Each structure stands twice: as C-alpha cells, then as structure tokens.
C-alpha cells in the first residue's frame, strides 16, 4: 500500500486480510481489488463460495440478518467504500446484488470445472477486467497467492504453476511473478486448451508462408 492520504470512511485491505464484521456498517462496495467469500460454519472447514470484484456490494447477508456464516478475505490489495443501507436506493442495490450474485455463482462453475488451463484463463480475465484500457494492450495484473489460486480453481498448486508456466512459455503471459502477471486480455482470450492436459496453444496463430 502507498502512503497517500486515505478516505477514513473507506476500508483498505492488504492481500489475505480478513474483512471484520461490523454491525454498524455491514454493506460495502468493492472499488478496487478482489475478495473471496467463503462459507465458514462453526466447527467446519471453510469452503469457497464466490468472488467479489470491483462494483460488487458485499454484506447483504449480514444486513438481511440471515444465518449464513460467511468469511470475506481480500485476495489482493482491495479498497472498499461504505454503502448507505436506507431509503429508496436500497431497493435498487438489492436488485443489483441479486443479479451480480447470480453472475458470480455462474462464474464459479467456470472456475471449478473443465480443463484446469481453461479455469485459470477465466480467472485471469476476471482479475484483468477494467485494468487494460486499449484493445490488445499489455498490462500488469495483481494475482492472489498460489494457495488461493489453486483453491479457487480446485486444482493442485503444482498444476496451477505448470499451467502458468505453459502460458508464459507460449507468450500468453509476458511476465509472471508470485503475485503479479503481465499479459494482454485479448491475446489470452485466443488461448485454446489441449483436452486433459495443462499445455496451451494459440487459437489459429498464423505464420507467414513462403512464396
């Protein structure tokens, strides 16, 4: 995190920092970053439920007084702003949250089924949303720790590392560090999977033909 002045009404979470429950301010909107929402009933191991990405409102379950035992934790550095839970706008927020929650649950199916390379591709594109301004532009994208990556896509850490290495080898990732990758979303979308393998190859990559 930088040392610039911060809005004291907002929350700034470091990677892996847990969002503490606050009965006085249960609703937050994700401005930047990403959080994982886990089901964490007492006495049971926590289980990944869905992601919360920029624009999403979190804390609806607590605001509504449900008995869901949820844990929210930042995957990367995240900035949250409070949402006022009163008045007419609240109905719009509720409707918006229902639609977004449905979308996030559908995304979980993509993130946890099919070839592992396809799951990782989907996750990288989700994290890159809003970070790459131009078509085909290359930009840095912060990534979660390997343990979180592997848990979200339901694959062994070794498999995730192998897939990321393959993507780097085939130039779909221009650079890859433990918590950051540099790539073009447009190029990554052209990646195809080899069924049953973590190998990757470009989609219809053209090579010049000698006359």
Jot down its keywords.
Arc Repressor Mutant, subunit A; 12 strands; alpha+beta; 6 helices; Jelly Rolls; 211 residues
Topology:
Layout: E1 11-13, E2 28-32, E3 35-39, E4 47-52, E5 57-58, H1 60-64, E6 70-74, E7 78-82, H2 89-111, H3 116-128, E8 138-142, H4 146-152, H5 157-169, E9 175-177, E10 180-184, H6 185-189, E11 191-193, E12 200-202
Antiparallel strand pairs: 1-7, 2-5, 2-7, 3-4, 3-6, 8-10, 9-10, 11-12
Description:
A hairpin with a 7-residue loop joins strand 3 and strand 4. This protein folds into two domains: 97 residues, Sandwich (Jelly Rolls); 87 residues, Winged helix-like DNA-binding domain superfamily/Winged helix DNA-binding domain (Arc Repressor Mutant, subunit A). The protein is 31% helix and 24% strand. It is of the alpha+beta class and 211 residues long. The chain contains six helices and twelve strands. The C terminus is likely disordered. The protein is globular and about 50 Å long. The strands form four sheets. Strands 1-7-2-5 form a four-stranded antiparallel β-sheet, with no helix packed on it. Strands 4-3-6 form a three-stranded antiparallel β-sheet. Strands 8-10-9 form a three-stranded antiparallel β-sheet.
How many domains would you count in the coordinates?
A: 2
In percent, how much strand structure appears in the residues?
15-25%
The strand count comes to 12
The low-confidence parts are: 194-199, 203-211
Largest sheet: 4 strands, antiparallel
- What is the number of helical segments per DSSP (H or I, 4+ residues)? 6
The span between the termini is: 55 Å
Spatial order of the strands forming the largest sheet: 1-7-2-5
CATH superfamily of the largest domain: Jelly Rolls
Instruction: Specify the structural class.
Output: alpha+beta
Helix content: 25-40%
Order of helices and strands: EEEEEHEEHHEHHEEHEE
CATH architectural category of the largest domain:
Sandwich
Give the overall silhouette: globular
What is the C-level CATH assignment of the largest domain? Mainly Beta
Q: What name does CATH use for the topology of the largest domain? A: Jelly Rolls
Average pLDDT value? 84
Give the C-alpha Rg. 19 Å
């Amino acid at each position: 995190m930088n040392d610039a002045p911060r809005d004291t009404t907002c929350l700034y979470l470091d990677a892996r920092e847990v969002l503490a429950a606050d009965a006085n301010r249960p609703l937050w909107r994700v401005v930047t970053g990403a959080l994982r929402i886990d089901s964490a009933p007492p006495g049971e191991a926590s289980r990944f439920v869905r992601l919360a990405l920029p624009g999403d409102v979190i804390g609806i379950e607590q605001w509504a007084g449900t008995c869901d035992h949820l844990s929210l934790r930042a995957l990367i550095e995240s900035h949250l702003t409070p949402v006022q839970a009163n008045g007419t706008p609240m109905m719009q927020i509720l409707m918006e949250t229902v639609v977004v929650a449905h979308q996030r649950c559908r995304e979980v199916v993509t993130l946890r089924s099919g070839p592992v390379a396809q799951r990782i591709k989907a996750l990288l594109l989700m994290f890159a949303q809003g970070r790459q301004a131009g078509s085909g532009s290359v930009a840095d994208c912060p990534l979660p720790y390997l343990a979180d990556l592997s848990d979200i896509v339901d694959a062994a850490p070794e498999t995730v590392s192998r897939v990321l290495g393959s993507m780097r080898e085939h130039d779909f990732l221009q650079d890859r560090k433990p918590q950051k990758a540099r790539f073009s979303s447009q190029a990554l979308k052209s990646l195809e999977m080899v069924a049953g393998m973590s190998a990757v190859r470009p989609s219809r990559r053209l090579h010049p033909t000698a006359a």
